[in-house]
Amino acid sequence: MTIRTVPLDEQDDASRHDDLTILVVGAGVAGLAAAQLLRADGHHPILVERRDPEADAGYMVALMPLADGPIADLGVRQEYLARSVPLDRFRFRAHSGRSLRTDGLEDVVGRYGDYRGLTRGALLDVIAGEDAAVTHRTTVTGLDEDPEGVGVTVETEGTVRTLRVDAVVIADGIGSRTRSLLPGAAPLHRVETGWGGWVAWTPLDADVDLGEELWGDGFFIGTYPVPGALGAFVGGPEQETRQGPAAFADVVRRKLGTAPPRIEDALRAVAAAEAPFFWPLADVRAARWTTRRTVLLGDAAAGFLPTAGIGAGMALESAWVLASHLRGATTETIGEALAAYESAQRPRVETAQNTSRSLARLMFRRGRALASARDLLLRVLSIGTALRPIVRLLADRPALPARQR
Length: 405
Ligand SMILES: Cc1cc2nc3c(=O)[nH]c(=O)nc-3n(C[C@H](O)[C@H](O)[C@H](O)COP(=O)(O)OP(=O)(O)OC[C@H]3O[C@@H](n4cnc5c(N)ncnc54)[C@H](O)[C@@H]3O)c2cc1C
Known about the structure:
By secondary structure, the chain is an alpha/beta fold. It has 13 helices and 20 strands. It has a domain at 3-87 and 113-189 and 282-362: FAD/NAD(P)-binding domain (3-Layer(bba) Sandwich), CATH 3.50.50. The strands form five sheets. It has an eight-stranded mixed β-sheet with strand order 7-6-15-16-17-14-18-20, with helices on both faces. Strands 3-2-13-19 form a four-stranded parallel β-sheet. A three-stranded antiparallel β-sheet has the order 4-8-5.
């Protein structure tokens, strides 16, 4: 394990010689990547995480080429390739379950770089590299920003401490509590789809490079390969998913008649899983990301619906762009550095989020006539067309100066 639990004092002491002291809240995809990139630049950011260190593999993640720059800059590309599998093909199924079309992804995504599947746990290990210090079981309960710095109240298993830092990176995910501690917190805009679903693992079949989605009449099933397994998502409107995964799987089976083997495996897996992770399909967007000394990063700034499969890739890209803006920043210039970061990155993230919102309006629907009309559309609409705004973001990725190693 490359993620190393350390006491808060150890991180605080190490940071005291830095020109710019930084606290990162949340050691998820964005926070861990930001901390490791800052460490590669010689900073000693303090990284705190609410969870236990013994986290499980989590869910499946398909990573767009947005991840390639940060992964290369972290010096972990070989580990990334070793812990993930390529996603070369994508299949849409009609609402009846029959295959509508299978597209090669090489021309859509692949020509911009890697498109790969892995577990969230493996991704965190990859980002951590050889060594990543984290203080676990720790949250922030107070933020007090003044012109010279930020006073932060930090709580580790009931023990409360106050830290004084120059800047705070808030990366505690879509349900960020730290975000709400900011005085005059930026307004949040949420999209609630009224749908939700379960995540489970199923055995890998022969199509090891194939992601697949079935957009049904009142249900959605996606299967995505990771090394040695398929991550499955089965979702639907909350009135129906409320009955639980086994009952909902039966509803889907009744609508499908005979389900193709991969779909049946996915239904069986969520029905049989002991306590499958339930994902309420809602997103959130903060109107502003920065104050003079704090910045929202990753899902805490803009949390994604799953429909464009881009949240983690964007979180990594944002961490990379943020770290590059913090290079050379001091306690006097931090406000300008954070403002420049927000101007550079927020439009990209919001474009990606808008795409995921548009796709959600198409996917999370019920009604047989509507599902049939959508099948017709999907037959002519390639995945490249569906993801066109995302493909533009891939073509127009930030060009950042290479890190001096
Ligand atoms: C089931 C599922 C499937 C997904 N599939 C994909 C995919 O295929 N492709 C893709 O690109 N994206 C995918 N995503 C989205 C992607 O996982 C997120 O966009 C990405 O993880 C965002 O990174 P983050 O660091 O901002 O948040 P997270 O990865 O959620 O990390 C936040 C961290 O903060 C910690 N934390 C929370 N509160 C506190 C606190 N108060 N104090 C300290 N720490 C705290 C959490 O424990 C967590 O470790 C998926 C998400 C889910 C749920």
